[in-house]
Amino acid sequence: MNGLAPIARRKLSDQVFDRLKHLIEIGELKPGDEVPSERTLMGLLRVGRPAVREAMQALASMGLIEISHGERAKVLRLTANSLIKQVDIAAKIMLASSPGSLEELKAARLLFERGVVREAAIKATPSDIERLEAALLAQRASLGDPEAFINADMSFHTQIAKITRNSIFRAVSEGMLSWLKEFHIEMLHRSGREHITLSEHEHILNAIKSGEPGLAETALVRHLERSRDLYVSKA
């Protein structure tokens, strides 16, 4: 009978994990609070030290708590940025071992940034434009230094995402740029296309400054389509 399948026995550490995660979810353990000590949890839950430690490590790997040597674990404040960082290492490994994944990321970035730049053109204030202009000046000043140039390039695109006032847009933008960075520097250094990049960024900036979403999107698409071949998988 399908309704009488065997009852699965769950690991004690999974049960401890569920209990602690529930306390975080309902706010009984808030960001900044210390998690009860191992000894306290062992006594309250009537489990051994290995179950508690395994559960704590699982919570830490999810970014829910921070474990520091010699100190009590603390509940972390979750942000869009911290959530994206949880997949940072796995994303970089996947991209390094799968050329197809890199192509998919390029396509995802293009679709994502098209919407972001339109939003930026609608919402940009004079202060936003000043920060974007400063980012472009910093990139221009870094000509001849590939590492600094790429960092300034990332800063320019991140600044566009910041203009949207959406923390998730900003976190996703920073994540994508970080994952792509390792496939970019050597190719850019050999390409001699830095001045083209600067010119394209200036067109994007001017379109945002003029408050024209359509022009901003067109300039952004032209820039990303042209620069797609600068990102090459090493796999």
UniProtKB/TrEMBL annotation:
CDD domains: WHTH_GntR. Gene3D superfamilies: GntR ligand-binding domain-like, Winged helix-like DNA-binding domain superfamily/Winged helix DNA-binding domain. PANTHER family: TRANSCRIPTIONAL REGULATOR, GNTR FAMILY, UXU OPERON TRANSCRIPTIONAL REGULATOR. This is GntR family transcriptional regulator. InterPro entries: GntR_C (IPR011711), TF_FadR/GntR_C (IPR008920), Tscrpt_reg_HTH_GntR (IPR000524), WH-like_DNA-bd_sf (IPR036388), WH_DNA-bd_sf (IPR036390). SUPFAM superfamilies: GntR ligand-binding domain-like, Winged helix' DNA-binding domain. Pfam families: FCD, GntR. Keywords: DNA-binding, Transcription, Transcription regulation.
